[in-house]
Amino acid sequence: MxxxxxxxxxxxxxxxxxxxxxxxxEQWKEPTPCTQWDVRGVVTHLVGMxxxxxxxxxxxxxxxxxxxxxxxxxxxxxxxxxxxxxxxxSAPGVLExxxxxxxxxxxxxxxxxxxxxxxxxxxxxxxxxxGxxxxxPSDLAERSLEFARVQLATQSRTGxxxxxxxxxxxxxxxxxxxxxxxRTVPPRQDPEETA
Length: 195
Known about the structure:
By secondary structure, the chain is mainly alpha-helical. It has seven helices and two strands.
Protein backbone atom coordinates (compact mmCIF):
# COMPACT_ATOMS: atom_id res chain seq x y z
CA MET A 1 0.00 0.00 0.00
CA UNK A 2 1.46 3.36 -1.07
CA UNK A 3 1.44 5.97 1.69
CA UNK A 4 0.02 9.32 0.55
CA UNK A 5 2.33 12.32 0.77
CA UNK A 6 1.75 15.90 1.88
CA UNK A 7 1.65 16.74 -1.84
CA UNK A 8 -1.26 14.29 -2.24
CA UNK A 9 -3.07 15.96 0.65
CA UNK A 10 -2.43 19.34 -0.99
CA UNK A 11 -4.01 18.09 -4.24
CA UNK A 12 -7.11 16.94 -2.38
CA UNK A 13 -7.45 20.12 -0.31
CA UNK A 14 -7.10 22.24 -3.47
CA UNK A 15 -9.85 20.26 -5.24
CA UNK A 16 -12.16 20.66 -2.25
CA UNK A 17 -11.29 24.38 -2.02
CA UNK A 18 -12.33 24.85 -5.65
CA UNK A 19 -15.59 23.02 -4.97
CA UNK A 20 -16.36 25.11 -1.87
CA UNK A 21 -15.56 28.34 -3.72
CA UNK A 22 -18.20 27.37 -6.32
CA UNK A 23 -21.07 26.84 -3.85
CA UNK A 24 -23.86 29.31 -4.54
CA UNK A 25 -25.52 31.18 -1.63
CA GLU A 26 -28.79 29.28 -1.96
CA GLN A 27 -26.98 25.90 -1.72
CA TRP A 28 -25.59 26.25 1.82
CA LYS A 29 -28.72 24.77 3.42
CA GLU A 30 -29.11 21.89 0.94
CA PRO A 31 -29.11 18.36 2.44
CA THR A 32 -26.11 16.13 1.77
CA PRO A 33 -25.54 12.36 1.60
CA CYS A 34 -23.93 12.76 5.05
CA THR A 35 -27.42 12.98 6.53
CA GLN A 36 -26.46 14.67 9.80
CA TRP A 37 -25.27 17.81 8.00
CA ASP A 38 -26.40 20.22 5.31
CA VAL A 39 -23.80 21.74 2.94
CA ARG A 40 -22.70 24.36 5.49
CA GLY A 41 -22.48 21.66 8.17
CA VAL A 42 -20.15 19.55 6.00
CA VAL A 43 -17.89 22.54 5.35
CA THR A 44 -17.94 23.38 9.08
CA HIS A 45 -16.84 19.79 9.79
CA LEU A 46 -14.05 19.98 7.20
CA VAL A 47 -12.69 23.23 8.64
CA GLY A 48 -13.03 21.97 12.20
CA MET A 49 -11.24 18.70 11.47
CA UNK A 50 -8.46 20.49 9.58
CA UNK A 51 -7.90 22.59 12.72
CA UNK A 52 -8.09 19.53 15.02
CA UNK A 53 -5.56 17.58 12.94
CA UNK A 54 -3.27 20.63 12.66
CA UNK A 55 -3.35 21.00 16.46
CA UNK A 56 -2.88 17.26 17.04
CA UNK A 57 0.08 17.02 14.66
CA UNK A 58 1.60 20.40 15.50
CA UNK A 59 1.06 20.20 19.25
CA UNK A 60 -0.96 23.41 19.40
CA UNK A 61 -4.20 24.12 21.26
CA UNK A 62 -7.35 22.39 20.07
CA UNK A 63 -9.98 24.62 18.45
CA UNK A 64 -12.89 25.75 20.58
CA UNK A 65 -15.72 23.20 20.48
CA UNK A 66 -19.06 24.46 19.23
CA UNK A 67 -17.62 27.62 17.68
CA UNK A 68 -18.62 28.55 14.12
CA UNK A 69 -15.31 28.46 12.24
CA UNK A 70 -16.86 29.65 8.94
CA UNK A 71 -18.17 33.11 9.77
CA UNK A 72 -19.32 34.91 6.64
CA UNK A 73 -16.50 33.54 4.45
CA UNK A 74 -16.71 29.72 4.34
CA UNK A 75 -14.36 29.44 1.35
CA UNK A 76 -11.76 31.64 3.07
CA UNK A 77 -12.12 29.70 6.33
CA UNK A 78 -11.52 26.47 4.46
CA UNK A 79 -8.44 27.82 2.64
CA UNK A 80 -7.02 29.04 5.96
CA UNK A 81 -7.69 25.74 7.78
CA UNK A 82 -6.23 23.64 4.97
CA UNK A 83 -3.11 25.85 4.93
CA UNK A 84 -2.70 25.19 8.68
CA UNK A 85 -3.22 21.46 8.09
CA UNK A 86 -0.63 21.30 5.31
CA UNK A 87 1.87 23.32 7.35
CA UNK A 88 1.49 20.92 10.30
CA UNK A 89 1.99 17.82 8.14
CA SER A 90 4.96 19.44 6.35
CA ALA A 91 7.06 19.87 9.52
CA PRO A 92 10.23 17.76 9.57
CA GLY A 93 9.77 14.26 11.02
CA VAL A 94 6.02 14.63 11.57
CA LEU A 95 5.02 11.72 9.34
CA GLU A 96 7.30 9.28 11.18
CA UNK A 97 6.40 10.38 14.73
CA UNK A 98 3.63 8.88 16.86
CA UNK A 99 0.87 11.30 17.80
CA UNK A 100 -1.44 10.61 20.73
CA UNK A 101 -5.00 11.87 20.89
CA UNK A 102 -8.41 10.78 22.19
CA UNK A 103 -8.52 8.69 18.97
CA UNK A 104 -5.49 6.71 20.16
CA UNK A 105 -1.90 6.71 18.97
CA UNK A 106 -0.89 6.73 15.31
CA UNK A 107 1.95 7.92 13.15
CA UNK A 108 1.70 11.18 11.28
CA UNK A 109 1.50 9.19 8.02
CA UNK A 110 -1.50 7.26 9.36
CA UNK A 111 -3.16 10.50 10.51
CA UNK A 112 -2.59 11.95 7.05
CA UNK A 113 -4.33 8.95 5.47
CA UNK A 114 -7.28 9.30 7.86
CA UNK A 115 -7.59 13.00 7.09
CA UNK A 116 -7.36 12.28 3.37
CA UNK A 117 -10.17 9.73 3.21
CA UNK A 118 -12.45 11.91 5.36
CA UNK A 119 -11.70 14.90 3.12
CA UNK A 120 -12.41 12.97 -0.08
CA UNK A 121 -15.64 11.48 1.27
CA UNK A 122 -16.96 14.87 2.35
CA UNK A 123 -15.86 16.40 -0.95
CA UNK A 124 -18.01 13.71 -2.59
CA UNK A 125 -20.88 14.69 -0.26
CA UNK A 126 -20.59 18.34 -1.31
CA UNK A 127 -20.41 17.48 -5.01
CA UNK A 128 -23.52 15.28 -4.74
CA UNK A 129 -25.44 17.89 -2.77
CA UNK A 130 -24.61 20.82 -5.04
CA GLY A 131 -24.15 19.23 -8.46
CA UNK A 132 -20.75 20.94 -8.73
CA UNK A 133 -18.14 18.76 -10.48
CA UNK A 134 -15.72 17.77 -7.74
CA UNK A 135 -12.43 17.23 -9.57
CA UNK A 136 -11.34 15.02 -6.66
CA PRO A 137 -8.29 12.90 -7.55
CA SER A 138 -9.44 9.35 -8.31
CA ASP A 139 -5.98 7.88 -7.69
CA LEU A 140 -6.11 9.22 -4.13
CA ALA A 141 -9.64 7.87 -3.69
CA GLU A 142 -8.42 4.41 -4.76
CA ARG A 143 -5.56 4.47 -2.23
CA SER A 144 -7.82 5.94 0.47
CA LEU A 145 -10.34 3.15 -0.07
CA GLU A 146 -7.59 0.56 0.34
CA PHE A 147 -6.46 2.19 3.60
CA ALA A 148 -10.02 2.65 4.94
CA ARG A 149 -10.86 -1.01 4.29
CA VAL A 150 -7.88 -2.11 6.38
CA GLN A 151 -8.31 0.49 9.12
CA LEU A 152 -12.07 0.13 9.60
CA ALA A 153 -11.94 -3.67 9.54
CA THR A 154 -10.65 -3.55 13.14
CA GLN A 155 -12.39 -0.42 14.44
CA SER A 156 -15.92 0.43 15.47
CA ARG A 157 -17.87 2.51 12.97
CA THR A 158 -20.33 3.67 15.65
CA GLY A 159 -20.63 7.45 15.67
CA UNK A 160 -18.28 7.74 12.68
CA UNK A 161 -19.58 5.86 9.68
CA UNK A 162 -22.64 3.84 8.72
CA UNK A 163 -22.21 0.30 7.48
CA UNK A 164 -20.79 -0.12 3.97
CA UNK A 165 -23.39 0.23 1.24
CA UNK A 166 -23.62 -1.72 -2.01
CA UNK A 167 -21.88 -0.32 -5.06
CA UNK A 168 -20.64 -1.88 -8.29
CA UNK A 169 -17.03 -3.02 -8.52
CA UNK A 170 -16.77 -0.97 -11.71
CA UNK A 171 -17.99 2.23 -10.02
CA UNK A 172 -15.55 5.17 -9.86
CA UNK A 173 -13.12 5.03 -6.93
CA UNK A 174 -14.81 8.01 -5.22
CA UNK A 175 -18.19 6.26 -5.33
CA UNK A 176 -16.66 3.06 -3.93
CA UNK A 177 -14.97 5.04 -1.13
CA UNK A 178 -18.22 6.84 -0.31
CA UNK A 179 -20.15 3.55 -0.26
CA UNK A 180 -17.53 1.94 2.00
CA UNK A 181 -17.94 4.87 4.40
CA UNK A 182 -21.72 4.35 4.54
CA ARG A 183 -23.07 6.58 1.78
CA THR A 184 -25.81 5.42 -0.55
CA VAL A 185 -24.45 5.80 -4.05
CA PRO A 186 -27.12 6.32 -6.71
CA PRO A 187 -26.89 3.93 -9.66
CA ARG A 188 -25.00 5.33 -12.62
CA GLN A 189 -27.05 6.09 -15.66
CA ASP A 190 -26.10 4.68 -19.02
CA PRO A 191 -25.30 7.71 -21.26
CA GLU A 192 -27.70 6.27 -23.87
CA GLU A 193 -30.55 6.38 -21.32
CA THR A 194 -30.08 10.13 -20.79
CA ALA A 195 -29.75 11.02 -24.48
